[in-house]
Write a structure and sequence with these properties.
Layout lengths: L1 H17 L5 H74 L2 H11 L3 H74 L2 H33 L16 E4 L2 E7 H11 L6 E6 L2 E8 L2 E14 L2 E13 L2 E2 L2 H10 L6 H4 L3 E9 L2 E8 L2
Antiparallel strand pairs: 1-2, 2-9, 3-4, 4-5, 5-6, 6-7, 8-9
Length: 365
Amino acid sequence: MILKKFYLTFCALLIGTSLLFVPVHAENRTEAEKKETEALLQKGLTVHEIDREVARLAEEDVKLGGQLTDTEKKIAAQEIVVKDAKKRAGKVIRSYYAGERESLWSVLLSVRSLPDLLKTYEYLDIILDHDHRSLTAHQDAYRELGAMKTKLANQRTDLQKTKENYLKQKERILALQSELNRELDASGRSELILALIQELNGRWEQEGLPLFRTYFRSLAGVMDYFPELLTPGGKDSHLTLESGGGKFQMTDHQLNAFLRSKDGKFDDLTFQFKPDGVMAFGTKGDMDVSIKGTYEMEKDGDQPVIAFRVQELVFNGFKLPDTTGKSLEKEFNLRIYPKKLFSFVSVEHITLEDGLLAIKLGLNW
């Protein structure tokens, strides 16, 4: 890694020009300084990323607040619509209770000629259609108002969660920044380390984060081809049907071949299945990246989905905080929707082994 190599070279030159023979204690000190520097760089990158998440949450807070206000205005307008529709529906219902509509049928039965019968029936049909539309309009308006109120409640919940997360991350970054400042002062090399932190953070922003986004975007795009893997008897199918259900099985070698056949960006990234999760690692130029995650069953509304959850991201040997993985999960949808593929299929459990992903499926006829 460039930053680590740069720092080691700097230390070597500094020591080489000062001493012809390096004592053991000096070597130990150099190793200790190297570890200290790496730890401070790690902390500096963590602070940088959490600060970015705090800024994102602040923007989301403003956005959700605006959406909430807009929904409240729409509810106020819809309540007027409901009130008017209720008033019109009430008139229709009262007319039936008062027997006014029965007299219309009496008129229809009292006509003596076919032309009068047809004309009277046409008028009666118009009146009944108006009654029906008045009652339906009230039902629709009331239903829409209920949906708006549900949406408002969800928006308030989302806004509250965002505010709580914002305060949590703000508190977290303040503590980390204070800790970093103390450790920089204690190191006696604060200017050098700050320069290295700025270089690392800049490289992450300009090259590292865009590279991770490229991989996640490509993964989200490949999801469109996923049905090919689930078509029984298909060329690329990995689904076998059994009594009462089915099983999807795929090795990591097969996954890598499939991904690379759909997008050349995966030529630089290799996936591995392990019992504790899915690993992806690769090198692009002088950048080393790795992704660790796992598949989990969860709900998207009422729909069951298989979601990929990021557990760890590493860039050039430095771990990114959990906020980075979560932000990428929000930005790119890596979920599998079994019901969209087959409405009668349910996922019973997911198993990860060395080199193998297995998904047990049930059938709901």
